[in-house]
Design a protein that fits this description.
heterodimer, A: 635 residues, alpha+beta, 3 domains, 6-stranded antiparallel β-sheet, 22 helices, 23 strands, 15% strand, B: 313 residues, alpha/beta, Helicase, Ruva Protein, domain 3, 5-stranded parallel β-sheet, 13 helices
Chain lengths: 635, 313
């Protein structure tokens, strides 16, 4: 035997937790404190079994709190006061005695709290809380109706199971409705209130300039940058192109307007990707280096393979990209060599001197690049995120003194040396690497994978991707594969996959888009030769027909006895109504009924119905119509 | 001529009998007709003087079949029924003299007065439809039907039929007293034996044999078969009953149901037919537990039948 009241109060607390847990992180400290206090007081009182805090005290206590937050409410600050008062009301109810009335209030307040948490955050965990709450509320409602009848009711274990099953089935019944409403109800892609301060909007990551030597230490944010749905690639190919920096100004590399025109020629197989960037302030659309095409509206394409989006950044985007991933892009005709070899006038002569020293023996671009690479490889340069050179001569310090830096130093220094040696080159900013989720079939790229590398133009070949960071003495340690197999990473990838599916199928679900697809499909259908369609779908139609025939044979009686069953029910009801022959089903035979009713039409019905039934056949359509007619006209 | 048209002959016959000759005996007449149509035998169990013999005579009269009668007594010998060989002095050899059993309808009056030895000889002939006397087998005529009557066994000087013998009767029924008005009419009109002897046959032997074939072809659906099986098997597990119904009982129930359906003008058996025939066909075959023997067997069967729903879908 289980006490209903005990069960109901456990459920009430659980429902309260479902409401307050998701909201808790977004509350200010006063309501937070109130919630903790209320929960503690409630549990203590329930445990002791007496309630010194009377309801009128609680209700009285809410009034000043309500007034306080009502004053706070303004157009500039509409949400916090409302959420706070909701949380405090929930806290007060949790603190008091759990009567049926109060339990229902707690359920409603919890639901409001959970709903208001979605003003701040749209994480998939919301669904978990919502599902749990609906389930618990359904059971609690059943139990509360019992409690309402008799406060101290006890329930045998067996009946309890029935109650649990009934309560559990109720939310399931709403599932078909859910399927119906999901596609048509409007939704937001962002938390309505919190999107400005939302951590999902990134400001970090790669930037619109490369400026080594600003900070002694580089921060690393592990926030997600984007996901790319595609097949698995070799690590050498995993360079994600963002922006190109083609001009050096003082110590900085920037992207100058007026990119010189050039005509890239892509060869070799393409890699297609479906990219889901996180919300960001950057307008540069990422693609696997080097993207040949990105299919997105309002996109500005530059000849150096940079794609800038000019639409709104306030919603989640997704786009298809096609890439030539080999790291070498031929160019038809010539490039603007002076543009890509220009250096600032105040460049350190020490650096230009170094470049001249290294490449003095050779003439071709290819050889110059090889020599510079050798210089980096053998120069004892180390990749590091700390202890970076700073100041206006940071590059010089990096090359000659500190000899440690991150990708920006390596890429800048290498590019400066290349340009000094007369080799056209530019810096490419983007990402390197990515964690592949086997589950979702996509690469997960986070901000800490932001990277800068160099593209050098080799006469006759084209733009060659060179990653100077990989020349560092410790490059192998920095970009090894080991970490990709760690358990934590795998768990992270799995969690991310859930989040990804949530984003893809719920948050950015676009009814218009689905509708558009359907419309396009319909259009395409119109242009198809019917004979072709027939040939294509014939096997399916045949298979379905066979399946139905099989079902018909196997389940004939159970599937198709409905008509007889229905009409018999109507007959028995009518006989009872008109002749007062009230019998249990099967107590009297059809002819016995007819004899008792002593009515021509009842006899006729019995004769037709039994004639089919006891000859082991079904009613023919004519017979069925006649029976219906008899029933309609009455006896 | 369709089956439903051919059964008109029999419904006419039953109507004429119950209207003109045997008022108030529709049930027993109908059961007799059913026994005739299935080739079974009928046992009528009731007090003397309620018209048992008259029913048998009337049935014989209206069908134009030959009629034999055996009045059973305790000194009745088997050969009194079957016949015996008698030495014919003119021919100088034995010739077989047919007994009363060599008739189409044989009335065995007060069968429980005969000695068990005679009873069993008669019942064997009923079952086998032939008689073997002194090594020679004589076939009984077709159709052959025994119309046995018995007094309730608590009457003195009777040898109750054992259950195994009772099982050979397709139907066992009582007649009961007629209703008041009918009985007064009967009393006023006196006996009808004379009128019966002047009765004109309405049914021919050929029609009976054809009707028997028709009855055999009445359709018995799987649903009704299930119902019969459920009824029979329920008697085997009932607490009041020591020995449930045999397979022969089930066969007979199905046959009687077919004949009942035929008389109702149908070419298929409805569960109603089975339910209606259940008591008449099966009650006398039940062996109740010894401490329950005072209970009415028909009532036991009605209780069982009420527990099993008729198949309606």
């Amino acid at each position: 035997m289980v006490s209903i009241k005990f069960l109901a109060s456990i459920l009430t607390y659980s429902i309260g937790l479902c409401g307050l847990l998701p909201l808790f992180p977004w509350l200010t400290s006063a309501p937070r404190l109130a919630l903790l206090l209320g929960l503690a007081v409630g549990l203590w009182q329930d445990f002791k079994g007496n309630w010194p805090f009377k309801t009128w005290m609680q209700n009285g206590a809410i009034v000043p709190v309500f007034l306080y937050y009502a004053i706070q409410f303004s157009r500039a600050n509409p949400v916090q006061p409302v959420v706070s008062i909701l949380a405090i009301m929930l806290a007060v109810r949790l603190a008091g005695e759990k009567t049926v009335r109060h339990s229902l209030q707690i359920q409603a307040l919890s639901l409001f709290c959970l709903a208001s948490s979605s003003l701040f955050d749209l994480s998939p965990i919301f669904l978990l809380y919502l599902g749990l709450m609906l389930f618990l509320v359904a059971i609690a409602l059943v139990l509360l109706t019992f409690q309402d009848q008799e406060n101290s009711m006890l329930l045998p274990k067996r009946d309890l199971r029935k109650v649990l099953i009934a309560g559990g089935l109720m939310p399931l019944l709403s599932l078909p409705l859910l399927l119906f409403f999901f596609p048509i109800l409007p939704r937001t892609q962002m938390p309505l209130w919190n999107f400005l301060s939302s951590p999902t909007v990134r400001t970090s990551g790669y930037s619109d300039k490369v400026e080594p030597g600003v900070q002694p230490n580089a921060g690393e944010s592990r926030a997600l940058a984007f996901r790319a749905e595609m097949g698995r690639q070799t690590p050498q190919r995993l360079y994600w192109r963002g922006s190109v920096f083609n001009t050096m100004q003082g110590n900085r590399w920037v992207r100058a307007d007026g990119v010189p025109p050039e005509v890239p020629v892509f060869s070799g197989p393409k890699v297609d990707q479906l990219i889901y960037p996180e919300l960001s302030v950057s307008r540069v659309m990422i693609g696997l280096d080097r993207p040949t095409e990105i299919s997105l509206n309002r996109l500005k394409r530059s000849p150096d393979g940079v794609f800038e989006y000019s639409g709104s950044l306030n919603k989640h985007l997704n786009y298809r990209a096609s890439s030539a991933p080999d790291g070498l892009v031929a160019v038809k005709g010539a490039i603007n060599k002076p543009f890509y070899t220009k250096l600032p006038v105040d460049i350190s002569p020490r650096i230009t001197g170094l470049a001249a020293e290294i490449v003095k023996a050779v003439n071709t671009d290819r050889e110059k690049i090889d020599l510079l690479e050798n210089y980096f490889r053998n120069g004892g340069y180390r990749y590091s995120m700390t202890g970076l050179p700073t100041g206006p001569d940071a590059l010089e310090q990096f090359l000659f003194i500190r000899k440690q830096g991150h990708c920006e130093f390596f890429a800048s220094a290498f590019a400066v040396l290349l340009r000094s040696a007369g080799v056209p080159c530019r810096l490419v900013g983007g990402f390197k690497g990515g964690n592949y989720s086997e589950l979702g079939g996509y690469y997960l790229v986070s901000d800490d994978m932001a990277h800068v590398w160099v593209e050098a133009y080799i006469e006759g070949n084209g733009w060659q991707r060179i990653d100077p960071s990989s020349f560092a003495a410790n490059a192998g340690e920095v970009w090894n594969d080991k970490k990709s197999r760690s358990l934590i990473l795998r768990m992270k990838l799995t969690l991310d996959y859930l989040n990804y599916e949530w984003n893809r199928s719920v948050i950015v679900y676009d009814f218009e888009q689905q509708f558009e697809y359907a419309r396009k499909a319909g259009k395409r259908l119109q242009g198809i030769n019917p004979a072709n369609i027939l040939r294509n779908i014939f096997p399916y139609v045949l298979a379905i027909a066979l399946l139905i025939a099989l079902l018909f044979v196997v389940r004939r009686t159970s599937l198709f006895n409905r008509r007889e069953e229905r009409i018999l029910k109507r007959f028995l009801r009518k006989v009872e109504k008109e002749h007062g022959i009230s019998v249990e089903r099967g107590e009297l035979g059809l002819f016995e009924i007819a004899e008792r009713a002593d009515n021509q039409r009842v006899s006729e019905f019995s004769g037709i119905y039994a004639g089919a039934l006891y000859r082991d056949r079904r009613l023919t359509d004519d017979e069925y119509r006649r029976l219906q007619q008899i029933l309609r006209e009455g006896f | 001529m369709s089956l439903t048209a051919r059964n008109q002959v029999f419904t006419n016959m039953l109507e004429t009998l119950s209207r003109d000759y045997l008022q108030g005996k529709e049930d027993v007449l109908r059961l007799s007709a059913i026994a005739l149509l299935t080739g079974g035998h009928i046992l009528i169990e009731d007090l003397p003087g309620l018209g048992k013999t008259t029913v048998a005579l009337a049935l014989a009269g209206i069908t134009g079949l030959s009629f034999g009668r055996v009045q059973c007594t305790s000194d009745l010998l088997p050969s009194d029924i079957t016949g015996l060989s008698i030495f014919n002095r003119d021919d100088g050899r034995f010739s077989f003299q047919h007994g009363p059993i060599f008739n189409n309808i044989v009335l065995l009056d007060e069968i429980n007065r005969a000695m068990p030895r005679t009873q069993s000889a008669m019942l064997e002939a009923m079952e086998e439809r032939r008689v073997t006397v002194e090594g020679v087998t004589h076939h009984l005529p077709e159709p052959f039907m025994v119309f046995a009557t018995q007094n309730p066994s608590d009457q003195s000087g009777t040898f109750p039929l054992p259950e195994s013998q009772l099982d050979r009767f397709l139907i066992c029924t009582d007649i009961g007293y007629p209703e008041e008005i009918l009985e007064k009419q009967i009393i006023a009109g006196g006996g009808i034996r004379e009128r019966i002897s002047e009765m004109m046959p309405l049914v021919t032997r050929e029609e009976i044999l054809a009707a028997r074939r028709d009855v055999q072809s009445v359709y018995l659906s799987a649903k009704v078969l299930d119902y019969i099986y459920l009824l029979v098997s329920a008697t085997r597990t009932d607490d009041l009953i020591q020995t449930g119904l045999s397979t022969r009982a089930a066969i007979n129930l199905a046959q009687a149901s077919k004949a009942s359906a035929y008389l109702a003008g149908r070419d298929y058996v409805a569960p109603d037919d089975v339910k209606n025939m259940f008591q008449a066909v099966c009650a006398h075959r039940l062996v109740l537990r010894s401490e329950m023997s005072a209970i009415d067997r028909g009532g036991v069967l009605r209780t069982i039948a009420s527990r099993i729903p008729l198949p309606l879908v």
